[in-house]
Design goal:
2 copies of one chain form a homodimer. By secondary structure, the first copy, chain A, is α/β, with parallel strands linked by helices. Chain A contains 11 helices and 13 strands. The first copy, chain A, has helices at 7-19, 74-86, 95-107, 120-135, 177-187, 212-225, 278-283, 294-308, 312-333, 358-369, 388-412, and strands at residues 41-45, 48-51, 56-59, 113-117, 139-143, 169-172, 191-197, 228-232, 255-258, 269-273, 338-340, 349-351, 372-373. A 7-stranded mixed β-sheet of chain A has the order 4-10-9-8-7-5-6, sandwiched between helices. In chain A, strands 1-2-3-13 form a 4-stranded mixed β-sheet. Chains A and B meet through helix 1, strand 1, helix 3, strand 4 and helix 4 of A and helix 1, strand 1, helix 3, strand 4 and helix 4 of B. Chains A, B: InterPro entries: Aminotrans_3, Aminotrans_3_PPA_site, PyrdxlP-dep_Trfase, PyrdxlP-dep_Trfase_major, PyrdxlP-dep_Trfase_small. Chains A, B: Keywords: Pyridoxal phosphate.
């Protein structure tokens, strides 16, 4: 990929390496991506990104979730600018905080109230704290391998983490009602809550929607002892169903954690909850210097306003279906076996016989060279700005990328 | 205070009470302030705020820290708007992230590198995780009563917190070298770090600058076993000394946590560290959906740019001194005994014989009615937008407020 001439990106990486440990940190580190992917970005518009070397990409990561309606969505930007001219970080919230809480309560099936934070991790951590406060118990059930944030109690890494940080966490297998029941039994009458992702979107493995049986078992395990069912909607929230990802299953959580897409890229997170946990939520001490910032609240009000007019989730599904079908058809044409899993609006493409992700890497690198930004191992995201023409453009790149995978297989054989 | 007619504020509080537990949460909850203080704000400019009922305040809380240069500072706003037109939350950082890290490393005495987060709590938690990763040890020393954030390991509340969350934290008394040494001895060769605030700014008690003896003892306790000295600069950072609050003591930390004022109100936090912890910082997994947001980074670059031109800290000191001297003089005139403590640019006014804060409350309410927003128990903050005229205005209100306190004493006597 040396011919791509990432000269400014390379020089920024060199500068960064001097002043940032490892040159970057966390999930946006380009070392988690195939070679050739840019680390630094110059511009974003709709569903397109420009890197610092001026190359443009049709983007399928959507900032790893936050970009729901398209970068610089006019209604969201107008609301944010209007609020910014008035004030953002003040001695207390603006009216937008109340409006956003009202909208969430009115929109989300289980929500009797809402509280706001900045990070998805703030929201999941707050849910756990509220569940413990509301039940007076300690044990938390979480799915093995699920991502719920990047602090010691839930980080995917144990570097710098002590065993006490996870002392009261018991693990079950997603979509395995029996393992959940066994963990609940082990927690016994010390069970404070069951934490579960809206659907299984663990890195590097097929995505799985929850079965009705599993969702009902999670609900029943909580109801049996008065524990809180905590739904982690940080990643999936607002893309699957506006009222909540488990509404279609007829299972409502007691608490839910939201972030990423909630304000179309403005930094915001939220916890929603049911009446019985309102008092506990008012008793825990959770706060942050910027949590009442009015600009993200105004952006959230505008984002939810657009979503509530309807059609966005349907559009994401239609475009996701077109992408999935198109890639399946192209894969068949090229004789490539691959698996697409999870909700179509949050695509994941994994190749058969690809334990080292060599096929996925070649697929993504070839698409990237044609201006389409896919991810080989992490679920991707669609935005409202992805239309028919963009999906056709992506499918053309995917076709070429699958041809490259097929050709590499020929060469290897 | 009923005559103040907070009618819109009251109606917003009623709406909030239905959809937000307790109507509000955290440190910005108006129930932590005397009656009459507004909960909701409509507008901010320089060092002034307008509440939703149209009343304006000369503000001495500065959004509890973030407002360092004044709301809508033209250079900061121009930089933020320029970046916002390009892109904010993208698939990776913008060049501004590197620029800001370079500026921090160039500005802050101990800093060999920087990493970014959103909340002050993110920064302190990241410091602790890096210290544990870098030392392979677990114990952390913290000052009893110090505020380092609002998650279970450090929250001022234990509601929803388990004892394991604080299993490895040992407490010492601020400015008490002996108690620190005793705690370090107890931690023994499991000591990962010593966490200490830039100065003592615990709620409801006199502020204390660290003594050189104490700072040196903290440094020595770390050096003796190779632990990390972690300075919490979240509240004091950029107001006392640009290169770091302990530079004047000749004591450099290994890690420091920054937030609040770093981007003049835009949501951002940072950790800075020394070379020996660079590898550990690259190994821990810490991340957030909005941590690479380019607009707050650009605002941070502009804020640091203004600060590095010099004069702001000196201005804050001059205005803080004028305020402190003026209040002392007014108190003497009215025969009121009060204590002003800590750095002049972060004022705290406590009254003698005021265990129930009745005097402080009356003082603040009277000033508020005259359009000056003080706090009776928490340290306050000055901004670069507070000039001579504003301090004179504040002193006029303070004079009337002290007269009210004197008059109430007469009545009681």
């Amino acid at each position: 990929m040396a011919e791509m001439k990432n000269s400014i990106d390379t020089s920024l990486r060199e500068r960064a390496l001097r002043v940032v440990p490892g040159g970057m940190w966390g999930h946006l580190h380009a070392n988690r991506l195939p070679e050739g992917y840019p680390q630094f970005f110059a511009r974003a518009e709709g569903c397109r990104l420009w890197d610092v070397d001026g190359r443009s990409y049709l983007d399928f990561m959507c900032s790893w979730g936050p970009n729901l309606l398209g970068h610089h969505h006019p209604e969201v930007e107008a609301a944010a600018e209007r609020q910014a001219r008035l004030g953002d970080c003040m001695n207390g919230p603006a009216e937008a905080m109340v409006e956003l809480a009202e909208l969430l309560v009115d929109t989300i099936g289980h929500a009797d109230w809402a509280q706001f934070q900045k990070n998805g991790t703030d929201a999941t951590t707050t849910c756990v704290t509220i569940a413990r406060a509301g039940t007076g118990r300690r044990k938390l059930l979480a799915a093995r391998g699920a991502y719920h944030g990047a602090v010691p109690w839930c980080s995917p890494s144990v570097v710098g983490v002590t065993s006490e940080d996870r002392a009261h966490i018991l693990y079950y297998e997603f979509n395995d009602a029996e393992s959940l029941s066994a963990a609940a039994k082990e927690a016994g009458d010390d069970l404070a809550g069951v934490l579960v992702s809206a659907y299984r979107h663990d890195l590097s493995r097929d995505q799985e929607l929850p079965t009705a049986e599993f969702a009902l078992a999670a609900r029943a395990a909580c109801d049996a002892v008065g524990a809180a069912l905590i739904l982690d909607e940080v990643r999936a929230g607002f893309r699957l169903a506006l009222a909540g990802s488990w509404e279609r299953l007829g299972v409502r959580p007691d608490l839910a954690a939201w972030s990423k897409a909630i304000a179309n890229g403005y930094p915001l997170a939220a916890v929603t909850g049911r009446e019985w946990l309102r008092k506990a939520a008012s008793q825990v001490f959770v706060t942050g210097s910027f949590w009442c910032g009015a600009v993200p609240m105004a952006a959230g009000v505008a984002t939810l306003g657009v979503m509530r007019r309807g059609g966005v989730v349907e559009h994401l599904e239609a475009m996701g279906t077109k992408l999935r079908n198109g890639i399946d058809a192209a894969a068949a044409r090229h004789g490539i076996r691959l698996r697409q899993s999870g909700p179509v609006q949050m695509p994941l493409i994994l190749f058969e016989d690809d334990a080292d992700f060599a096929k996925g890497t070649l697929f993504c690198q070839t698409a990237l060279a044609r201006g389409v930004y896919f991810h080989p191992r992490h679920n991707m995201f669609l935005s409202a700005a992805h239309g028919e023409a963009e999906i056709d453009e992506a499918l053309a790149a995917a076709d070429a990328a699958l041809a490259a995978v097929a050709s590499a297989r020929q060469t290897a054989a």
